[in-house]
Specification:
The protein is mostly beta strands and 249 residues long. The chain is built from one helix and ten strands. Keywords: Signal.
């Protein structure tokens, strides 16, 4: 709850400051159609990231109790696109995600197990992105980003109980469709900040799992997700620019 309040406060403060800064630094002639950020023939490029951390001293469960849990997750992406018409662009995106978790589990017989988990994931996607201006001067936009592509991930979990190590390795290949809406704020001419979240996704995946170097599972499946996680907003920094300079002086 505390993190949620902080994030909402940050978002409201940022929009207010961005609006004030833009009004003071952007000349009037930069707001005409000729200089439209999302106009046909322009390009954009940027970087987006999200992160979450969690530390838990103790958590009681039905079968095991978890102690000294530490979890860190970080995701970033780089993308670029070209506006084939006003407010509509096509592009590409590459992403990377890293997850690390450590904890100690204690069962009903008071047997302790040290757990270490690590995951790395990579993705490459085609992007379709459209914008809706919210004001006449086009400082604020709603946008919707649709991603279609593939991702690859690998994870390793090590569990140690009474000096006995069990190592589980999994690799996953998937085809994904994601729908990511958000809001874009034009801070100064050409530069903007975007805040968005994934609200829907479809995924077909193929997974192979090994335990102590022996294959124990091969599977494939499909998943759909229509949930919104407001605690994992994506924050992006973007630059919009024309690829052809006007010949008119």
């Amino acid at each position: 709850m505390r993190q949620k309040i902080i994030r909402y406060s940050f978002l409201i403060l940022f929009i207010f400051l961005s609006k004030t800064s833009f009004a003071q630094t952007t000349p009037k002639d930069s707001l005409d159609l000729k200089h439209k950020l999302t106009g046909k023939g322009n390009m954009y490029s940027g970087i987006t990231f999200s992160f979450s951390t969690k530390d838990t001293d103790k958590k009681e469960g039905l079968l095991v109790d978890v102690n000294d849990e530490s979890r860190n997750q970080f995701k970033t992406s780089i993308d670029a696109g070209y506006f084939i018409k006003n407010n509509f662009a096509l592009g590409a995106l590459i992403s990377y995600e890293n997850i690390r978790r450590e904890q100690t589990e204690t069962d009903s017989q008071n047997s302790a197990t040290a757990v270490q988990y690590a995951k790395d994931a990579y993705g490459i996607y085609g992007v379709m992105k459209n914008f809706i201006p919210l004001d006449q001067k086009e400082r604020f936009f709603l946008y919707n980003q649709i991603l279609l592509g593939t991702s690859f991930s690998s994870s390793l979990e090590e569990r140690t109980t009474d000096d006995l190590l069990t190592r589980t390795y999994s690799k996953d290949r998937s085809i994904e469709l994601q729908i990511n809406p958000g809001i874009m704020v034009n801070v100064v001419k050409g530069f903007s900040v975007e805040v968005g979240a994934q609200i829907a996704g479809f995924k077909a995946s193929w997974t192979e799992t090994k335990v102590n170097d022996e294959i124990t599972e091969k599977s494939h499946g499909t998943d759909s997700d229509f949930s919104i996680n407001l605690l994992r907003l994506n924050i992006g920094f973007y630059y919009y620019f024309p690829i052809k300079k006007s010949l008119k002086k």
